[in-house]
Amino acid sequence: MHILITGAAGFLGQRLIQALMARDELAGKALTRLTLVDQVTASVPDSSGPESNAPKIHTHAVDISVPGSLDAILDSRPDVIFHLAAVVSSAAEADLDLGWSVNFGATCALVEGCRSRKLSTTRLIMASSVAVYGGALPPVLDDMTALTPQSSYGTQKAMCELMINDYSRRGLIDGRVLRLPTIVIRPGRPNAAASSFASSILREPFNGEEAICPVPTDLNLFVMSPGRVIDALIHGAEVPGADFGLSRSVMLPGITVSVAGMLENLREHGGDQALALVRHEPDPRITAIVSSWPAAFDARRARDLGFSGDTSFSDIVDAFLNERSP
Amino acid sequence: MHILITGAAGFLGQRLIQALMARDELAGKALTRLTLVDQVTASVPDSSGPESNAPKIHTHAVDISVPGSLDAILDSRPDVIFHLAAVVSSAAEADLDLGWSVNFGATCALVEGCRSRKLSTTRLIMASSVAVYGGALPPVLDDMTALTPQSSYGTQKAMCELMINDYSRRGLIDGRVLRLPTIVIRPGRPNAAASSFASSILREPFNGEEAICPVPTDLNLFVMSPGRVIDALIHGAEVPGADFGLSRSVMLPGITVSVAGMLENLREHGGDQALALVRHEPDPRITAIVSSWPAAFDARRARDLGFSGDTSFSDIVDAFLNERSP
User: Fold this and answer.
1) Is A159–B162 a contact, with Cβ atoms under 8 angstroms apart?
2) Cβ of B138 under 8 Å from any chain A Cβ?
3) Is-contact A164 A173, C-beta < 8 A?
4) Rounded distance, CA B51 to CA B44, Å?
5) What average pLDDT does range A2-13 have in this prediction?
6) Can you give the pTM of this predicted structure?
């Protein structure tokens, strides 16, 4: 089992690598080779297993938006591709061409690269996003709600989804598209995602640092913990393609929580002194993007496909606090 | 008012040219220049107006899928672009690369060409299609139903729609996307559209010729007459962009009719001898494509935007018979 991961140096990529190496197998086949691709050289976690069983790991620092950059890697015929590399929402909004070339262009190249090499059974799992939705949405969405994204990031992801669906329908690739809810609580530092605040307003105060909340507290978000997202990516590689039926895209089963509810959890777990570290500084640009995303979703289809989510926002906070303590 | 039409040699292009020249104006501005683009040199209908008022007409035989082929034409800065050129559904299904390069690639080039020339107020009207819908659809669709096309043609159109929406949202272009129902009754000969039969089973018998019906007679279609489609294209150029709100795509208000209902109209207007000219030869490939399209649509949004449709299938047949008689 040879697995290729794009965006391997990113937060999700690193967690996925750890999860895969802890499992040793995927879809019942032993993990023999991991190919890690990112703009920078991806870190490789220490293998905890015996040396003989450890997969061979190849890392490539590559700009996947450069035509042909993935050729040699695809020539090695991976069995599973986790396509996580992306220019995030705020960055794609600020630079249309950058977002287009990475989010859309590189995905096209990856899909066409699989097609031209007849990698029709290679399972291609693309991380899509709640940002494919937007505009005048119903109170509760489902997988038959139209994609009317109100950001270039969401648009580029939605276009990739259509292409992956069509190529899968034609049997040219075996694609799977997982629409990720807003991921909270991310470790590390704020990034250029419009949703970055959703982790910051918890993570920073728990670390004794100030955080800025740029949105109204009555804003609802559709969220999922990093642990459940990694579970979903792995399940996305294991579920038979035929189970997806006429659409390879599925919204993962996040949970709905208001910013006020998140802050109440901050107070419950971190006390009033943690809550006091959150400064409210409305940012119309971020509010416009984030409030265009759906807040409630009937994820029956995802559950029918075997995907599962978090049980409560309190559990998400508990998981974060458990992971950060040694 | 300088109008550019791609696909100008096609059936819709030719009718649109005639309709525009009969009006002399668009959006209250006198028609001064018509630029006609197609693979072949488009016919130019005789101008019925006085010579001094007739618009200047330029025709270009161009393969718009060739990079740069539209550069000189866009340099002339059209005020309105009707983008009708397309590889139709069966042809795009048979040749993925051809459909991709014309339906998607050329549209991308057109949109990027407008953007790079700062043609942000040029109204770009793209003909999309009922084929953007497909799969497990609700009995009655509306503009918030997800696009899950089951053909490469529908996929390519849906991808263009997303791009046009995003570029319009960013103010880079002023795009409008009209999703055309199945157009009946087309004049001329059968073409490579999967829906070609829908015209053939009426047109050929009215001309005393045999026609093949490749689908079950209980199949419902969502249809619009050529006259109402041309009206809609013109209205699509005249309606203010802001009226579209958060989505530049709209399904035109077709009517629902079964193949049996169409054949009943054939008998009513042409008698038993006309009906007897229809041979039933099921074609699973065509049936698969056409039955994946929606048959009923709540087109309230289109009507709110001022688009109107046919009143009955009998009227569609009457219009066809009136037009073909001298």
Assistant:
1) yes
2) yes
3) yes
4) 15
5) 97
6) 0.94
